[in-house]
Amino acid sequence: xxxxxxxxxxxxxxxxxxxxxxxxxxxxxxxxxxxxxxxxxxxxxxxxxxxxxxxxxxxxxxxxxxxxxxxxxxxxxxxxxxxxxxxxxxxxxxxxxxxxxxxxxxxxxxxxxxxxxxxxxxxxxxxxxxxxxxxxxxxxxxxxxxxxxxxxxxxxxxxxxxxxxxxxxxxxxxxxxxxxxxxxxxxxxxxxx
Length: 193
Description:
- By secondary structure, the chain is α/β, with parallel strands linked by helices.
- It has one domain (6-189): P-loop containing nucleotide triphosphate hydrolases (Rossmann fold).
- It is built from 7 helices and 5 strands; from the N terminus they run βαβαβααβααβα.
- It has a 5-stranded parallel beta sheet, sandwiched between helices.
- Helix 2 links the parallel strand 2 (35-39) and strand 3 (82-86).
- It starts with 5 loop residues before the first strand and ends with a helix.
């Protein structure tokens, strides 16, 4: 019998706890279900500049990455019960906004081939707390994060709320345990587990 996997997207600015919550949910689900984790790679949006050709190439590369993720999700049908996405189109568009790319314009270009998730969990967090969490990681990849870029990314997410179907906003200012309880409550309420 054909079984379409449930696609759950974890979205939010860096430091909001989306990867932690994805891992916690995955650890619960794999006890009883087949789970696939999909993670869209960051694009080099910070390389955007005044060169139209360079910017078009970055947008093209970004579109290819999103398309690869989408095709990958389509090939998982009937093989998995759940697909947990660490980042998705909404995440890319929110961060594109940081670098001056208007997300609505990109939505028009990309939305026609994107699979609509069953649930998007947006982890809403105070920017100062997110920055503190990032600094505690002490990772070289996180050195470029600052208050301004995180604030702009959060603004980008807020512009995209209405374009994200099946959105639930999670208060990510709490402990990982409290957030996890909230995530489970949402999944139960939405009959996804």
